[in-house]
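Reviewers of the previous submission asked for a worked example of the structure-prediction workflow described in the proposal, so we include one complete record here. The input consisted solely of the amino acid sequence. No template or homolog information was supplied to the procedure at any stage.
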Amino acid sequence: MATGSAKRPRYARATRAAPHASFIAVPNAHSLLPRDPEPKPRRVLITGAAGFIGRYFVEHAPERYELRLMVRPGETVEGRHVVEADLGDLARLKDVCKGMDTIVHLAGESSPFAEWMPLLDSNLVGTYNLFVAAKAAGCRRVVYASSIHAVSGYPEDMQVGPDAPVNPGDLYGVSKCFGEALARYMAEHEGVSAIAIRIGAFQKPEWVRNPERIGNMDAWVSQRDLMQLLIRCIDDESIRFAIVNGLSDNRFNRLDITGARELLGYAPEDRFGDENPGLPNFDQVQTHSLRDGYPSGLRGELGDA
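From that input alone, the workflow returned the following C-alpha cells.
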C-alpha cells in the first residue's frame, strides 16, 4: 500500500462510531444450567446443517458435542444423526428440539437480494417457530445467526458496535433485526438464553486470496474464526442475552469486535491482510455499506424488474 502523501484508503476514515444504545449484554447472576459434576457431551442441534456455515461446523465440531443435524426435506449432509424438518412446521420442530441443550440456528433465507415473502416465511415465521420449539423443549440456549446486514445501512466511515441501534440496508437485514429482537424477548421473558452473532462475510481462504473475488475486506470472517466464536457461544454459562459481532481481526473492521472479545473470550486468529498481502490498493475493495447498493427488496411489490 502506498505511503507518505498518497491518498489514504477510505477505511482509514472509519473513525466515527455509530450511536450507542447500551443494553446488549445481559449477564446472569448464576449459571444458566446446573451442570453435572461429570458433564455429559453437550447436545447441540444445528439447523441449516446442509448450508455453507453448517457444513463447516459439522466437519470441525468438537467431539464433546453430540450433534443433531437439521436439514430441509430432500437435503443431505454427512452425520450420524440427521433429521428433516421445515421451519414452517412447528409441531415437527418441537420434536426435533427435544433433548437438546443448545440450538445453533443457521437455517433461513440468506440472500441479501431476497424479497419479502421468502424472508417472511423463513426468517420471521421460521425463526419464531424455532424459538417457540426451543422453549417447549426446555432448551438452555439458542445461538442465533444474525448478520452484518442488520446494521449495513450506516455510512461506510462508521465502525458499528454491537450496541448501536439497528440500521438495516436491505430487507434481509430487516429480517435479522426481527430475529435479534425476538432473541432478546425470549431471553428476558421466556427463559431461553440467546446470543445473536452478526456474522460478516464468511468466505473460504482461497476466495480471499483471489484478486478477482475480493470484496468486503472490512467485513470478512474466516472459517476457523467463526467456528471459534460459535463454540464460545455454545459453551458459555454466564450470559442470558447478548449481541456480538462476528468478524476476523482485520486491519479495517466494519464492526467492532471488542464485545465478543470481552464477553466470550473470542480471540480471532485470522485477518484479511494476512490472507492477501499483495492486495495493491485498499480503495479497490468494496466496503460493507449498502446505503446505495443492492436493488430494493420492495421491487416485487412495486412492480420493478
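The longest helix spans residues 116-137. We consider this example representative of the routine output the project will generate in years two and three.
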